[in-house]
Amino acid sequence: MKKTKEKGAFLRQCVGCGKRGLKNEFIRIAKTPSGEIVIDGVPSVGGRGAYICNNAECLKKSLKNGRLSKNLRAEIPESILQTLKLTTEENNNDQSV
Hints:
CATH class: Alpha Beta
Oligomer: single chain
Number of domains: 1
Radius of gyration: 13 Å
Low-confidence stretches: none
Structural class: alpha+beta
CATH superfamily: YlxR-like
Shape: globular
CATH architecture: 2-Layer Sandwich
Helix content: 25-40%
Number of strands: 5
Mean pLDDT: 88
Strand order of the largest sheet: 4-3-5
Distance between the termini: 34 Å
Largest sheet: 3 strands, antiparallel
Order of helices and strands: EEEEEHHH
């Protein structure tokens, strides 16, 4: 992760589109030390994480290329995928109104 000089914060990168930004701009999916895949909230859980933009297009790209699974080094459970799809679709609907 790169650190920006003007903000003093670490940048994260979307596994779908490659956009760089601050942590609060993305959804974090984490693989806990016990191997469970979770959608990370606040407070943050430990473990290996991957970030995606909060939109359906980036989610589709990350799943199509297998980048999300590859970054987490695990298969993503169907329940997590459904939750991510609902979350990103809701965000797209909110922005179009």
